[in-house]
């Protein structure tokens, strides 16, 4: 039987029903098929591919052409899941540039939603993209593309000034027309508050269990991170699982029932 494809409207309806949204990063057709069949709702072609596939220390070297290449591969493997693709470093430096680059990701890469990292300064860009028919996923909290300015991958929103900025910017992104928001590495209480305040679904990574959904980097949750895995992640290949499909299925179940992330995976 044909399965109904997930759209931004599907995700909004899931939020309204209190159903948790399951997302993972994905970079090729083979995994796209596996994740799609396991019931993952959102496949994120993240610029994290610069680190986990290309071996860079940051996501900064990743280009739009590389994102479009991997997105097109994922698009060929998916059937049901929504395809969200990152605009990489500098791709949204001006609204005009963002419009051009988003067009490339949608036309060449098959992106259904484009994700862009940044706060208030991007509100105009989000509005322009939305007006042109591009669904947008905003990304607040830890912004990996800004690692050189931040001086490391640190949790954000831990003091009241920065928490208030994230709250305000989340609201701004929704008002500008964003359809989704990724909140990365912020305290669980702040993420839960923002998820309740916004109409649009909020997908957390390192942001506690109170978000409308969860996303992880595929390689982290398969225990393929050669360095130190992030504190907020879980190795789903552990606990005796020997097949990748079983690990993905365990992740889908854990997110849907709310048992991931657990307290031990919620540093703040
Ligand atoms: O690039 C990526 O994988 C991401 C996730 C960490 C949310 O943006």
Keywords, separated by commas or semicolons:
alpha/beta; binds 3-methyl-2-oxobutanoic acid; TIM Barrel; 268 residues; eight-stranded parallel beta barrel
Protein described:
The protein has 268 residues and is α/β, with parallel strands linked by helices. The chain has a single domain, classed as Phosphoenolpyruvate-binding domains (TIM Barrel, Alpha-Beta Barrel), CATH 3.20.20. Helix content is 40%, strand content 14%. The protein contains 11 helices and 8 strands. It has helices spanning 8-17, 29-37, 49-52, 64-77, 95-107, 123-131, 147-150, 160-176, 188-197, 218-221, 244-257; strands at residues 21-25, 42-45, 82-86, 113-117, 136-141, 180-184, 202-205, 213-216. It has an 8-stranded parallel beta barrel with strand order 1-2-3-4-5-6-7-8, surrounded by 8 helices. α9 (188-197) links the parallel β6 (180-184) and β7. α2 (29-37) packs across α4 (64-77). The longest helix is centred in the middle third of the chain and has 17 residues, at 160-176. It is globular, with a radius of gyration of 17 Å. Residues 25, 44, 46-48, 86, 182, 184, 205, 215, 217 line the site of 3-methyl-2-oxobutanoic acid.
């Amino acid at each position: 039987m044909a399965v109904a494809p997930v759209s931004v409207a599907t995700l909004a309806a899931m939020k309204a029903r209190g159903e948790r949204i399951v997302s993972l990063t994905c970079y090729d057709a083979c995994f796209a098929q596996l994740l799609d069949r396991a019931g993952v709702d959102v496949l994120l072609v993240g610029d994290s591919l610069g680190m986990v596939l290309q071996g860079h220390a940051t996501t900064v070297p990743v280009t739009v052409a590389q994102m479009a290449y991997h997105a097109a591969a994922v698009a060929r493997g998916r059937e049901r899941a929504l395809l969200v693709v990152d605009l990489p470093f500098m791709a949204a430096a001006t609204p005009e540039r963002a419009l051009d680059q988003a067009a490339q990701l949608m036309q060449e890469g098959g992106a259904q939603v484009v994700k862009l990292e940044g706060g208030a300064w991007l509100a105009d860009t989000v509005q322009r993209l939305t007006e042109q028919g591009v669904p947008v996923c905003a990304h607040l909290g830890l912004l990996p593309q800004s690692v050189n300015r931040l001086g490391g991958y640190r949790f954000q929103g831990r003091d009241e000034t920065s928490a208030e900025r994230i709250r305000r910017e989340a609201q701004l992104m929704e008002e500008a027309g964003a359809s989704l928001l990724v909140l990365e590495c912020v305290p669980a209480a702040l993420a839960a508050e923002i998820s309740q305040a916004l109409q649009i679904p909020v997908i957390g990574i390192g942001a506690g269990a109170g978000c409308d959904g969860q996303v992880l980097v595929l390689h982290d949750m398969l225990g393929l991170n050669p360095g130190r895995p992030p504190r907020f992640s879980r190795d789903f290949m552990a606990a005796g699982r020997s097949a990748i499909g079983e690990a993905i299925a365990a992740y889908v179940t854990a997110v849907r029932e709310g048992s991931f992330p657990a307290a031990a995976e919620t540093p703040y």
